[in-house]
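May I ask for an example protein's residues together with how it folds?

___
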Amino acid sequence: MSADGTWELSMRTPRGERKSMLVLQCGDGSLVGKLTGEAGTPTDIFDGRADGKGVFFRAAIASPTPMTLEFAGTVGGNEISGTVSAGAFGTWPFTARRA
């Protein structure tokens, strides 16, 4: 199943649930796109790759605290599930559903 498309992403962070919109496009193992947080500011994803059903990418965010998030997930049907790592802030689960 391809990760191409628009996804409604939800992260269960230490500060509560955070929602974002994620747009992904795969090509030859690479993965590009944008992550738009609750504040409405989009950021490009980088270091993205798609490996079978696995997706991996990073996004630098400015709010609520500037940091780089590292996503690792598995695509299954109309859902992506996995973990997001924020360095010293820890790791937490995320899910994304096709919009």
